[in-house]
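User: Here's a chain of 201 residues. Predict its fold as tokens.
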Amino acid sequence: MRLTRTAIAGAMVLIGGLSGHNGALAQTAGTAAEARAAVARAAESVTAGRPAEAVKSLREATLAVWSAAPFDIVRLEACSDIPAGFRAFEPRGNAPLSVGEPFHLYIEPIGLAYEFVDGVYTMGLEADFVLLDTSGTILGGQRDFADVPFDFRAPSTDVYMTMTLGTERLPAGDYVLQITVRDALAGTDVTREVPLSVAAP
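Assistant: Prediction complete.
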């Protein structure tokens, strides 16, 4: 069977402010020391009555730990609609889809590498998907349905991507959506599977 319509929406939100490593990918070496130093700076700023500087230092600590973690997907959830922002979605639950009802997913990674060059931070996500039946037969799919580079000046760990799969031509039955997400800079990837069902009309 061929998937005749697949609607995909990819988006990320990156909000906040912190420092990176000039001209190079964030490295895992020294992450603990870097995070401890940032937390110490935050404590000093709070004591000195400088809350904005304290928040900036805590964001630096968060990014140091987050970017050094192994690349993974920490949240992959079916949603009742397209997510409005970072963790701003209504979980759909496991009820079967009605015929033609779109299948929305919220995808949140951890451990993305980043570059910092000339005051600009860069991250990127790439993703493929394959739709299978319950016997493992491939019904369709798309490589690089999401290939999204991001250039920004205020990075954070509030990074997410959404996917919407059209189901108009899918017969009633049970399926498995296999998603592979890649760190565009580091080249690492992770694959996850999400079950879905389409109810008979």
